[in-house]
Amino acid sequence: MPNFKKKSAKTKQEIPTTAMPDIVFMLLIFFMVTTVLREVTLQVRVDLTRAVNIEKIEQKRLISYLYIGPQSLGSNTYGDTKVQIDDALIDNLTFIRRIMYDKLVEQPKLIVSLRVDRESEMGMVTDVQQELRQAGTFQINYSTRRQL
Question: Is residue 121 part of a domain?
């Protein structure tokens, strides 16, 4: 019987890596452009109420959060009920009208999401709603947690 030997190629086959830095750089730019970082430092306590029937809003970019709750004074002590928009506490409720109107002009499909502490005064929530109406922001929702 003839003896057949398989000849092996003496060249090494390597994967070309010359385009890899370009691909990595393009992926990095893509994720930097598409990622939205919203970091708000809460200065009020917000312990949301629970609800059974809730809906999730898909487009988070259209939402502006407004927090209502007792002001955090540090070391688990809380003060009076305050309103917070972004990172700023609002002392005068008429400022809400101006701030939210400017946001509405910038984003006409703006949805205001109220995150209200369960022990907040309802009078404060009503006053905030009146200021939001004066600003023309009629799309308002209330943030809650899903009831277990």
Answer: yes
Rounded to 5 degrees, φ, ψ at 97 are -60, -45
DSSP for 124-136?
HHHHHHHHHHHHT
d(CA 70, CA 65): 16
CB atoms near residue 37 (< 10 Å)? 4
One-character DSSP codes across 8-57: PPSSPP----TTHHHHHHHHHHHHHHH---------B-----EESS----
Residues 68-113 pLDDT 10s? 999 988 888 888 889 999 888 998 999 999 999 999 999 999 999 9
Radius of gyration of the chain (CA): 27
Give how many domains the chain has, as a whole number.
Answer: 1
In 3-state terms, what secondary structure has residue 98?
helix
Q: Which domain holds residue 89?
A: 61-146
